[in-house]
Amino acid sequence: MVLKIHGHAIAPLVRLVAEVCREKEVPYELVNVEVYKGEHKTPAFKEFQPFGQVPYIDDDGFVLYESRAICRYIAKKYASQGTPNLVPHEPKAEAVFEQAVSIETSNFYPFALGITAEKIIKKHRGLEPNEARLSDLVNNLKGKLDVYEVILGKQAYLAGSSITLADLFHLPYGTIVFEELGYDMLEDRPNVARWWKDITARPSWLAVKAKA
What we know:
This protein has about 210 residues and is an alpha+beta fold. Helices cover about 50% and strands about 10% of the residues. α5 packs antiparallel against α6 (about 130-150), α5 (about 110-125) packs across α8 and α6 (about 130-150) packs across α9. The chain has a four-stranded mixed sheet with strand order 2-1-3-4, covered by helices on one side. About 35% of the residues are buried.
């Protein structure tokens, strides 16, 4: 049975899960959820994703939500195919990987998501951005990327010499901030720019960049 991703095709974290499926050469079926009509907030949807968020997956009856958990599951279940070691197995390498994941979760995602919320989500709701909050988010993200610049000056990827999920987790909201919204945070950070060019050029991401 083909793995099913329940979500909207352009939702950032739906595209992330689809990207990882492609990295691991896992066929998937996208089951469309009409988020703009509130389908993800219905009791029928919440039976499988109690927070009313996309995506969740159904892998032959195994239901899982939270995109990072889904990506780990796919990477581990299909470890022998596609891009290797998206989640390293050796204890020290796995620990460094988890460190890199924590970097993204704590030092990138909250700020990139916040910028997206101010500039895009509020617009969809007919609201104006809070310019003071937006400026704070941008400045904070720039400061975090200064540290990325140091880390990526010593190694190719956040967890070392090979790409992992920790790098791929940046793709959806990084693309929104750097490309769709046009925030120039890469020009003065050549190591970050080199890394970003590398991970965004992957065929698996290009295939789902617009929609899963």
